[in-house]
Each structure stands twice: as C-alpha cells, then as structure tokens.
Amino acid sequence: MDIFTLLFLIIVLAGSFIVYHFYLKEKSSELDTIRRGFCPRCHQKDTIEITDERSSGCCSPKQVTFECVECKYTNNFSIESGCRL
Ligand SMILES: [Zn+2]
C-alpha cells in the first residue's frame, strides 16, 4: 500500500466519522425536542405519538418509533432504558 492510498483511506474514515457524529448529534437534539413534547419538524405541541416500542432485553436500549399526527414526521430512536433490578 502506498502513502496516497493510506492518506485516501484516512480521509474517507475521518469523513464518515464526522458525518456519523453529526447524525448522532442531530438525532439526540430531535429526541430532546420530542421529550419536551414538541415535534422536531412542525414544532407543534403534543402531536407526537409512540407508534412502536420494542426492546431486546431488560438492560439493552429500547427501540422507540415516534410519529407526529400533524406533519407525519416519523423517526426511530434507541433509548437507554436502564436496568431495573
Ligand atoms: Zn409534526
């Protein structure tokens, strides 16, 4: 492997890491908005409903799907449920 291939790989890896980081940041800010009772898209209050909720175990994060009844915004979040022992 020459130095240019290596540099290219580093740039691609760093790029995808940054994109992933911003994706997670956006997700967590959307979840924050939903937890305060607002829709992240149309900013209406109390329009968000939980349409699906599943967990693979008591200590693993829950997969929760939210939907807005106003603008049909829908998103899926994994939420730490914590251990209830
Ligand atoms: Zn909405």
Structure description:
The longest helix is centred in the N-terminal third of the chain and has 33 residues, at 3-35. This protein has a 3-stranded antiparallel sheet, with helices on one face. The model has no long low-confidence stretch (mean pLDDT 92). The chain has one helix at 3-35, and strands at residues 48-55, 62-68, 74-79. The protein has one domain (3-79). It contains 1 helix and 3 strands. 39% of the residues lie in helices and 25% in strands. The chain is of the alpha+beta class and 85 residues long. A hairpin with a 5-residue loop joins strand 2 and strand 3 (74-79). Zinc ion binds next to loops.
Task: Write the SSE topology.
Elements (H helix, E strand, L loop, with lengths): L2 H33 L12 E8 L6 E7 L5 E6 L6
Antiparallel strand pairs: 1-2, 2-3
The structure holds zinc ion.
Defining traits:
85 residues, alpha+beta, three-stranded antiparallel β-sheet, 1 helix, 39% helix, binds zinc ion
